[in-house]
Amino acid sequence: xxxxxxxxxxxxxxxxxxxxxxxxxxxxxxxxxxxxxxxxxxxxxxxxxxxxxxxxxxxxxxxxxxxxxxxxxxxxxxxxxxxxxxxxxxxxxxxxxxxxxxxxxxxxxxxxx
Length: 113
Ligand SMILES: [Zn+2]
Known about the structure:
single chain, 113 residues, mainly beta, four-stranded antiparallel β-sheet, two-stranded antiparallel sheet, 1 helix, 6 strands, 8% helix, binds zinc ion
């Protein structure tokens, strides 16, 4: 089961308590009546849908009910971090776990060749 950290409840909860709410950090045009139909369509309908790191809005619908932002890797489906709504886009912290232990196999006496 996937656990998601709610930045308001400050605990990891089951993914079943959350609902995806679209791409995060989409700025509404300041004077929306002055933009063209094409610009409005781009703002309203078009999303990046990037592979890899993406910033999304999520809602703790079966918990505190609040919206928050999350940085998620769409390839591994890992949540890299979550932070409160209204905060600017946060850089993803270094995990420090990039060094993988490489296991090697050494042939011993009796191994078939
Ligand atoms: Zn919550």
